[in-house]
Please model this.
Amino acid sequence: MASLNRLALRSLPTLAAAQQSFSTGAAAFSVGSFFSRSSTHPLFIPSHISAHRQFNNHSVMRTYATTPSPQTPSGSDILASYSSDSHIGQNVAHAMEMLAKADAVCFDVDSTVIDEEGIDVLADTLGKGPEVTAWTTKAMDGNIKFEDALAARLEIIRPSKTDIANCLEKHPLRLTPGVDRLVEALHKRGTDVYLVSGGFRLMIEPVANVLGVSHERIYANTITFDENGDYTGFDSNEPTSADQGKPKALTMIKEKYGYKTMVMVGDGATDAQAKPPADAFVGFGGVVARAAVKEKACWFVHDFE
Model:
């Protein structure tokens, strides 16, 4: 089975993991050299993407070559180059082409960027695991409105600031294998990466730090506390706090920064809702493979390796 990292990187000719330029010919283009790490060809950042980036709230200037790379191949050409691989999805060629063109890629966090559900981990540490997991499954399968599941789960656990800090200290959230290399390659190409999640900002920020994603590029839920740090509720104004929240978040991102091509990657029904405004939806089944997501994904993959 083709993986997102292996195939997506090969469909993105300007990634650090695939710096060597591909050649275009009358019939096809060469992808055999995409994995050459010894290539001296420069990275190319499209002219509409600024080379000024924010990482962990610090301003960083990166230098890119100004010579354009060869024209991005079509999705059908990319797909044809993998004739020996099997692919799952409603329009795999389209998804590959959008990845090749994307100036922004948005990742879900739970069961996608990390290999577990953050709220379930928190619930386990508070002795409420089974009750919360049942609600999580309903929400991710699309069997209940997300806002109802979020409110129900938080009411069960009512986490304090101290509870969350203790949870992260005892059980640091684990990255899904390969996602760090994929995010790094996207950054080096000049593609902005966002974490768009129905999870909690306090739990996602440490993940963003590891991945080099600015906290400003986290769209997630905010738990509210009183002056003693005890749970009082959540901010219902966050776009991801309700059903259809991810398309709302991506619309906000697209309108604010003027991205031309956006791709959403995630494991749940709420992620599938993000197309549109996302130009393609890549379903991820490496942690939990959901039938409803597989049916809606332009491209469905099982790992990032």
Notes: The first strand starts at residue 52 and ends at 55. DSSP finds 13 helices and ten strands in the chain.
